[in-house]
Amino acid sequence: MIRFILADLRRLWAGSLVVVLLVALATALGVSVILQERALRLGSARAADKFDLVIGAGGSETQLVLSSVFLQPSALPLMSGDVLAKLAADPRVEWAAPVGFGDSFSGYPIIGTTTALTETISGGFSEGQGFASEGEAVIGASVNLAIGSEIKPMHGTIETGGHTHTELAYRVIGRLRPTGTAWDRAILVPIQAVWHIHGLEAGEEHDHDHAATEGAHEEADHHAEAETHAGLNESWTAETPGLPAILVKPKTIADAYKLRQDYRNGTTIAVFPGEVLTNLYATLGDAKQFLVAVASGAQVLVAASLILVTVIHIGQRRRQIGALRAFGAPRSAIFGIVWLEFFILVAAGVGLGFTLGYGAALILSGFFSQSSGVNLPVGFAREDGALAIMLLAFATVLAALPAVLAYRQSPAQALRG
Q: Are 210 and 75 in contact (CB under 8 A)?
């Protein structure tokens, strides 16, 4: 029977290929949606795990997390610098690292921060060491620069018409180990260097988009050269310039909750990145349900097309079926041959669909990881096995339709056709 089926499939290879491809494409659509959504959840959750608590000025909690954890550019409001001084002196805080945005180099964001963050975010350096003066920089694992490279910061980006700070150049002295987060594509520099470049001196009032005016840029460029070799001062006071965000490492879980409560006071907001992502996941869940519904609709259309194809196919094989019956083949053998032949095609399509869906998810995740720096792990889970079983069960039922049609044909009717 198997040799007969294989010979039949080789003879009808074109039609068989169409059936396999239809099933594969419909399956791949649903599988890729499921895998990509899961990879996005896992990747973003792992990236957020690096940071326990984020504090910023009033505004959108989601935007605060996207900007400070995932380094998505946005004009955040500034909070008073004395918040950092209070956090640094708080016995519940292991370390508090300010982050400053606004500059870039070759498409990589330049982030102003402190030695505390650079020494802990990745667990150490794969090359070089941490910065010790204003003119030094540390790069993430995925930044395509060499140790000793020169970095001339650009305010904003080329796309937004940014301008280069020509009077200051950082020198790369260290590379962080991979983190699987957006920080792998970041250039980290001392926060005080960012303040000096933009003319943000202690005690001054500043614009809310954490970038100084054009006049301040010009003034900063005149004295930037003198600040290149300035030592770091990471003792914060009430005169510290305004900040868009502070990343906080509490000493205990209880301290984390107390700090979040204390800094949700109207002038500042404090959030756990994981909680904010939960709200985003809810949105992703709605989008996933919609995409899965679209994929299911496509699968229903494919199933209907397959039914039509099989009915036509059985009609074209009436003489072959009649000949088999005339030579003494029982109805059950005819049913088994037609059912198994069609089931093999649909099962092959399901298997190919899982492979194509996995490949598509890998490609999409690769593009996203390259642009964002967040590593998206694509992989099958136990529930995907249930999906495969469900699809094969559906194939079992679908394959029974042409088998029943062949089963009901009498030899005389088939040979007359």
A: yes
Give pLDDT tens digits for 101-113. Answer: 888 898 899 999 9
- Residue labelled with tokens 């809810």: 282
Mean pLDDT across the stretch 33-54? 88
Cβ proximity of 135 and 193 under 8 Å: yes
Neighbouring C-alpha atoms within 13 Å toward the C-beta of 318: 13
* Maximum Cα interatomic distance, the chain, rounded to a whole number of Å: 101
Tokens of 370: 């390259």
- For 273-285, write each residue's pLDDT tens digit: 988 888 877 766 6
Question: Would you give the DSSP letter of residue 185?
Answer: G
Identify the CA nearest to 41 among candidates 291, 279, 357, 272. Answer: 279
CB-based contacts of 386, cutoff 8 Å, min separation 6? none
Residues linked to residue 155 through DSSP beta bridges, in sequence order? 103, 163
Per-residue pLDDT at 300: 76
Chain mean pLDDT for the chain:
80
d(CA 398, CA 328): 27
**Do residues 217 and 155 lie in contact, with contact meaning Cβ atoms separated by under 8 Å?**
yes
Pair 87, 255: CB distance under 8 Å = no
Query: What does the alpha-carbon distance between residue 24 and residue 15 come to, in Å, rounded to a whole number?
Result: 14
Spatial separation of the C-alpha atoms in residues 78 and 244, rounded to whole Å: 5
In this structure, the strands spanning 187-190 and 108-113 are parallel
Q: Where are the alpha helices (DSSP H) in 228-272?
A: 253-262
DSSP-derived 3-state class of residue 250:
strand
Which tokens belong to 6?
């294989």
Tokens encoding 331: 């109805």
Band of pLDDT at residue 15, cut at 50, 70 and 90: confident
Strand-pair category, 170-176 with 93-105: unpaired
User: Do residues 242 and 248 make contact, with C-beta atoms less than 8 angstroms apart?
Assistant: no
How far is it, in rounded angstroms, from Cα 33 to Cα 276? 23
pLDDT band at 255 (very low <50, low <70, confident <90, very high): very high
Q: CA 308, CA 287: separation in Å to the nearest integer?
A: 32
**Does the pLDDT value for residue 209 go beyond 70?**
no
Least Cα distance to 72 among 172, 150, 207, 186 occurs for 186
Q: Which helix or strand (DSSP H or E) is residue 291 part of? A: helix 273-316
Angle at 293 between CA 292 and CA 297, to 5 degrees: 115
Q: Which two tokens stand for residue 85?
A: 């001084």
Angle (CA) 382-384-388 rounded to 5° is 125
Confidence of residue 265 (pLDDT cuts 50, 70, 90): confident
